[in-house]
Amino acid sequence: MKNKNLKAVAFVLAIFTFCTNLTAQIKTKVFYSNTPTKYKSLVSRTYTTHIIEAPKEFYILKAKKNDDEEMKFAFPVKTNFDFIKNAKRENETGMQKYSLTINAKDALNISLKFSEFKLPKSAVLSIFNEHEVTDSITANENNENNIWATRVYQGNNLSIVLKMPSGEKENPRLEIGVVNFGYKNFGTLFDFGNIGLSAGCEINANCPAGAGWDNEKNSIAMIVVDGIEQCTGSLLMNTCSNNIPYVLTANHCLAAGNIPNWVFQFQTLSSDCVANIGWREDIQFNGCTLRANNATTDFALLQLNNAPLPNSGLFYSGWSRQTAGINSVTILHHPQGDLMKVSRDINAPVALNDIVTGVDCWFLNLDNGIVEGGSSGGPYYNQNHQIIGQHFRRPQNVGNPPPPPCAMTQTLGGRFDQSWTGGGTNATRLSNWLDPSNSGAMTTNTTNVSGLINPITSLTISGASSICTGTTSQYSVNAPSGVTVNWVSSNPSIATVPATGNPVTVTKVSNGNVTLTATYSCGTPISASKAVHLGTYTNSDYIISGNNGSPYYCTNQTISFGLSAAYSALGTNSTNLVWTLPTNWTMVYNGGSYVAIKSPSTTSPPTGSLSVSFTDDCGAPQTKSFFLAYSSSACVGTDPRFTYSPNPAPSTLYVAVASGYTATVFIKRIQIVNTTGVIVFDQSYGTSGVSSAYITTSGFSPGTYTLRIYDGSVWAVYQFVR
Predict the structure, then answer these.
(1) Does residue 657 sit in the same domain as residue 706?
(2) Among the listed ranges 4-13, 73-82, 117-126, which one has the minimum average pLDDT value?
(3) Dist CA 41 CA 682 (whole Å)
(4) Which of 282, 340, 521, 651 could form a disulfide with 698 if both were Cys (CB 3.0 to 4.6 A apart)?
(5) 555: domain range?
(6) Phi then psi for 42, rounded to 5 degrees?
(7) Residue 68 belongs to a domain with what CATH number?
């Protein structure tokens, strides 16, 4: 059907054409050769530069080949720098732009921590240097902590540009609290991370040892903590099969602090087994919230600030609480902040309690690859591709000096089955987060995010919008398999539906319309509704009206055509509509709106009717008409010829010709229309008309109504409240 509650949105859309990539995940483009034409004007421009001097501690660390903490590579410098106050402000074609370059003097790499971060809904923030551009930062990144951290960029210069419409009333807040000065390499000129830094016995994830694990590889994140520390994490399924971005990592990673500023980089793995080539670094998520953690099994469950997009290519890893039948273990991880590696134990793991730390662990003796610093939190998978734990530590990392890395094949990982119940509270266990409906599931399987449900917006009912003939039709909802879906019909005297099921069969009882509602509960109830019409349509099912319900011509008059409110959920198709208009009128369809345009606009056109003809969903021809007339005032409530009182009118409305017009003006017809376009009162007073009339309003529902008074030539339009 062709929807019919159409609104003029073209102007609003035009305001936001500058913002074409509003995503729930941050995208960074890395230029390995020449800068693409699309970005040349952005990265080649010279911006006002603010230089930040490094403290002496930075130079001491930089002079050393290594420092005592091998996973640290940057020194944090507190700045409390207000970007908005210090940036250069310019106006560009209806936009206001703020720009500035930060120079971290002598740093090898640079990252920023915003201690105040809040973007207006219409703003787009870009952060970049000559080789890397992050240009998709929007209000989607706003969070309850009002803080945010960037990824690590190579070099010591970082430009920041904020753009938003000139009329934006909301003020942006961007205060840079910390600039991290890289004193050790974290990547090279073009690369993110410590490419090639891990031990020579590590195995690229796309080697034969990692064959068949492609889905799980797309759930693994390198975690950068405030530009200083790294761990590994994995997106984790829940039993609701909805897109809640839980990430499993190690509890001891939390010691790095600043959890809301953590940055998660996905799909950072070589496409080759031997050479380090072809990896992506454009999918990153900034910020998270700690949901649960427990030192007893060294687990931490985080929730990303934003959920992956359905087309991101990311997966959620499955898990298992079962401890029997495990015959091999595979680990995916980022040792030393390197590209993703794979390690394997081809034997069954051993359950034990670590006598050094007291942590409940799985003990492995790896046959392929090893683990190192940065592997912490990396998932341990059983042979069924289900997580059974996360990396904790290497028990052989003792001695002075310790054994060579490649000789340390023993490893310990916290047990998932023990983390399930954890410390017995929501803040110390996995169960209530991963199984909020208490289904008792023992396992879940790795799943593409495209197959999951957004728990707020994307639950939908599939099935016909109209049952024109026959007595039954089938409907279903995209709820996870195995859950109980409850159904309700808004009017069982018109259509009935079973109380539960998926799919279900709706049975017609009589003609009319109903709303079907489907609900399933997985922690929080999630619902979807669908309007369904049963039987053929009548002409009264459709409405057509002008701006504010007025048939007046107002320069270019927006015309709404559609179904009555009962059918507002049904769609429309403009190509099926044929318009007939008076002389000098044309109809333009623009972005969902119909606009009746008179030319020339300075002269009064002949009054008359416009009509629209179409074929409805049931295949029947329909025609709907609407009266057009010119008015110099052309606005609701401005015609001085009539009066009405009281307003509000709880029981009676008195309508009369105004003093001074009684000899020349008469009331020939009165209509009252509610906010959904339904005419609730329609009375004609003959060819001679009357000078006044009383209308009983006590039976109307409370709300705002449109009062239409016709004098035989044009309509006067007002509004009142019942």
Answers:
(1) yes
(2) 4-13
(3) 62
(4) 651
(5) 539-630
(6) -80, -50
(7) 2.60.120
